[in-house]
Amino acid sequence: MADKGEGVYIPHDHIRENSHVSSIEQYQKMYKESVENPEAFWGKIAQDFYWKSQCSGKFWEYNYDVRQGEIFIKWMAGATTNVCYNCLDHNIEKGLGDSVAFYWEGNYPGDASQITYSELLKEVCKCANVLINKGVKKGDRVAIYMPMIVELVVAMLACARIGAVHSIVFGGFSADSLAGRILDSKSSVLITADGVYRGEKLLNLKDISDTAIQECLDAGFTVNSCIVVRHLGEKREPGAGGDMEHHPPKRPCIKLQTNWHNDRDCWWHDLMADASDQFEPVWLDAEDPLFMLYTSGSTGKPKGVLHTQAGYMLYAATTTKYVFDYKPGEIYWCTADIGWITGHSYITYGPMLNGATSVIFEGMPLWPDAGRMWEIVDKYKVSKFYTAPTAIRTLMKFGEDYVKKHSRKSLKVLGTVGEPINPEAWLWYYNVIGDKRCSIVDTYWQTETGGHVLTPLPGATPAKPGSATLPFFGQVPAVVNENGEELDGPCEGYLVLKQPWPGQMRTVYGDHQRFERTYFQKFPGYYCTGDGCTRDKDGYYWITGRTDDMMNVSGHLLSTAEVESALIEHSAVAEAAVVSYPHSIKGECVYCFVTLKEGKLFNDALVGELKGKVRQKIGPIAVPEYIQNAPGLPKTRSGKIMRRVLRKIARNQKDLGDVSTMADSSVVEVLFQNRPKDV
Ligand code: WT7
């Protein structure tokens, strides 16, 4: 994109000329069809995929209005397909069998491997047989708690092949979080690994899994099988089965001291060695579930977001194709973890449905040094690159030298996701990483949306730093006020979506009422995103952040309630209130107010214990940055904690706004005085 002044960047000719959508007029034309005639638009796209049987009934059907009855969304119901078949077999039939599906780049430089589409199909079929032998059937949930290794993709696609619903839990979550997700989804099989190094830090995943499985047992639920990938363990003798002998010299080869439960635990490589590499896919209805993925909910209990087969497939594939302008032969790399929705849609499903060649990276951006990402870009000649604002801001801090050491000349499209990107970081991404040659795509979406909602197209959309620009095909955004009235022209309000799109979530697993309450009750007739936004005179959207009790830490949503309930578990805490606080790298961080029980002392040791409690209950991402002693909390006369006031106190802003409903305003002055010294 070229700087046209006034903060507008238009796509460079070299990107525009051979892109799928090469002008804003072409985008507008396609967009118009996508929202006016979704059946024609998505029907044409569906022809690129394999269907065992066609949809004979309604192509799409929905109710978005709680006043009219139950909320439902259906796309292509009655058609049958298999997403794994479309990711693998269908591409192989098109001649992509020998092309690389994934380059795997390990944490340790030099530790790398690759796998073609045909090889991956064999592994997936073996794993499908393994799961069937473990008693997994269509519709059963399988929990996956793994590092960023190829076996993770194998496991998820194997689930998809047999119609099991994968429930991937991010490898950075704690045993408690894992247990909660296994219990809620009733997953009787867990797939994990012995351990993983992230930088120099060892994560003993099997140990954490053992703790989680025990917690499930204590709660009355049995995990029947725990399948363990040997990722770090000792090198085995050649011929011992599996393909695990490539242990590179640099990966530390350690035997982790894990307890082994013979009746439950099995090594992945043992099971895979005995399994057939053929497996006929289970043909599934378009509206059968594909996977579930937990996301924080404002009441504190994570929600199992459920996605289904056909719609998700069409949407993940189409967004990948257009938003990254993916073309055959290009190398694509998304740095997210597969444990988040970004990894589901834009490492596994979207790229594979396009027959893409992608990089999977196990490590982290700063290790062994801040040039690692650009070293990988050069090594594989990555042209489409997707990361998060928090990573960009972190790298900015380390300066340009680490970037300039590497050529990066293969790069064409640079994507960002997870939170609003500040214009300074956008410009650094554009000027320094992209050498002013690349298109930046700021993609706004959610776990719930399955794929991009607002985003530029790299060859078509003039970009403005900090704006996610315009709706993707099929999306009909609107801005409403507190009363749910749609606003016209330039405005500020709540971002809602007016019409369903194929990749939309269908329900909260096991709690359809919560789905209706969370997304459809506040503004009947609309899907409520929970985000605030402004719309400018050109119709561009600028996300201003969450409007509910959610915090966005490094691009990951946390609810204030889940952190509060972790804090309250500490025996010294009587009451806790949590708000977000701005952070230069993470975007937002966690700021806590705690009221202690009589006679308890607030000191550094207690602060350490409270942080430990949050780490144990949720995981390292949720650990509070600041914890402040609060002899009292500002509350309304009806007893509700006024987080709005606490947010101001955290930020040391004295203009509290309307506090007429506050029961006892004397607490406020004390809280201002008690602010931690390091904020
Ligand atoms: C929330 C969704 C979607 C994958 C990662 C996060 C915020 C996400 C952007 C963006 C401004 C963004 C929103 C959204 N968000 N991308 N480009 N600009 N805000 O998934 O955990 O479901 O979080 O992240 O607040 O609602 P998630």
TrEMBL record:
Keywords assigned: ATP-binding, Ligase, Lipid metabolism, Membrane, Nucleotide-binding, Transmembrane, Transmembrane helix
EC number of this enzyme: 6.2.1.1
| A GO molecular-function annotation | acetate-CoA ligase activity
> Which intervals hold domain Acetyl-coenzyme A synthetase N-terminal?
27-87
What InterPro entries does the record tag this protein with? Ac_CoA_lig (IPR011904), ACAS_N (IPR032387), AMP-bd_C (IPR025110), AMP-bd_C_sf (IPR045851), AMP-binding_CS (IPR020845), AMP-dep_synth/lig_dom (IPR000873), ANL_N_sf (IPR042099)
Bilayer-spanning residue ranges: 142-164
Say which domain of life the source belongs to: Eukaryota
Q: Which stretches make up the AMP-binding enzyme C-terminal domain?
A: 562-640
Q: Name one Pfam family in it.
A: AMP-binding
Annotated AMP-dependent synthetase/ligase domain ranges read: 97-501
Claim: ATP-binding is one of the keywords in the record: yes
- Gene3D superfamilies attached here? 3.30.300.30, N-terminal domain of ligase-like
Please list the GO biological process terms of this entry.
acetyl-CoA biosynthetic process from acetate; lipid metabolic process
Q: Show the catalytic activity.
A: acetate + ATP + CoA = acetyl-CoA + AMP + diphosphate; propanoate + ATP + CoA = propanoyl-CoA + AMP + diphosphate
Q: Which family does it belong to?
A: Belongs to the ATP-dependent AMP-binding enzyme family.
Summarize subunit and interaction data from the UniProt record for this chain: Monomer. Interacts with TFEB. Interacts with the 'Thr-172' phosphorylated form of PRKAA2. Interacts with CREBBP.
Q: NCBIfam families annotated for this entry?
A: Ac_CoA_lig_AcsA (TIGR02188), PRK00174.1 (NF001208)
Name listed for the protein in its UniProt record: Acetyl-coenzyme A synthetase
Q: Which organism is it from?
A: Branchiostoma lanceolatum (Common lancelet)
Q: What is this protein's gene name? A: ACSS2
